[in-house]
Amino acid sequence: NAGVMQNPRHLVRRRGQEARLRCSPMKGHSHVYWYRQLPEEGLKFMVYLQKENIIDESGMPKERFSAEFPKEGPSILRIQQVVRGDSAAYFCASSSGTSGSTADTQYFGPGTRLTVL
Amino acid sequence: AQRVTQPEKLLSVFKGAPVELKCNYSYSGSPELFWYVQYSRQRLQLLLRHISRESIKGFTADLNKGETSFHLKKPFAQEEDSAMYYCALKGTGGFKTIFGAGTRLFVKA
């Protein structure tokens, strides 16, 4: 099991472009979480998805950000019309469940570092 | 408001010395508390959780509801413990995890 995969690892975009970040959860995991980490700060929850459903997007900015987790394929975090303030590390995590002693353990990917010029 | 506070950005100790990484939280319900660790060039990973009441790599953490704290302790630090440590909170039965800003532990030889 290769673990949670994220690509690309580094992404450079100019202001106004779109950024698309991908996350492939661990095999057998159907729960995906996205976090954003700004310099010198902890991870900030953005969105929680299950297959084909957004369960909680309370941490997502109201505009320009969207996320999906289709039936087939990776989860995608999309940022439209990027601005310099979007520069951050974006982490994805997956779990097999949401409660219980181990089912909700989140396994993290290596992150995607987005730089907006 | 739900919040996790790690007051120390950097903690430096000598090998063999005791270490305590502080974590305080604010949460209105019944939380689950976690410690995550990120070693150099590795992914963030779960170190321990309070409901397991376990010791991992010599680390323990006790949930003190009266002081709303979940400090991470180890009696004798090792050089390989040098890493970034994050305290995190989740509501029981929930899924949204709130992270502290992290403490970088540096264990000197």
The count of helical stretches of chain B stands at: 0
Straight-line N-to-C gap of chain A: 36 Å
Q: Approximately how much beta-strand content do the residues of chain B carry?
A: over 45%
Terminal-residue CA separation of chain B: 40 Å
How many strands appear in the DSSP assignment of chain A? Answer: 11
Helical amount among residues of chain B, as a percent range? under 10%
Q: Main sheet of chain B?
A: 6 strands, mixed
State the oligomer.
Answer: heterodimer
Mean pLDDT metric of chain A: 92
Describe the structure.
The complex is a heterodimer of chains A (117) and B (109). Chain A has strands at 5-7, 10-13, 19-24, 31-37, 43-50, 53-56, 65-68, 75-79, 88-95, 107-108, 112-116. With 117 residues, chain A is mainly beta. In chain A, the strands form 2 sheets. In chain A, strands 2, 4, 5, 6, 9, 10 and 11 form a 7-stranded mixed sheet that branches. In chain A, strands 1-3-8-7 form a 4-stranded antiparallel sheet, with no helix packed on it. In chain A, strand 7 (65-68) and strand 8 form a beta hairpin. The termini of chain A are far apart. The model of chain A has no long low-confidence stretch (mean pLDDT 92). Chain B has 109 residues and is mostly beta strands. Chain B has no helices and 11 strands. Chain B has strands at 3-5, 10-14, 19-21, 24-26, 31-38, 45-49, 60-61, 72-74, 83-91, 97-99, 103-108. In chain B, strands 2, 5, 6, 9, 10 and 11 form a 6-stranded mixed sheet that branches. Chain B starts with a strand and ends with a strand. The relative contact order of chain B is 0.35. The model of chain B has no long low-confidence stretch (mean pLDDT 92). The A-B interface holds A 3-4, 31, 33, 35, 40-45, 48, 55-56, 58-59, 91, 98-99, 101, 104-110 and B 4, 6, 9, 43-46, 51-52, 86, 90, 92-102.
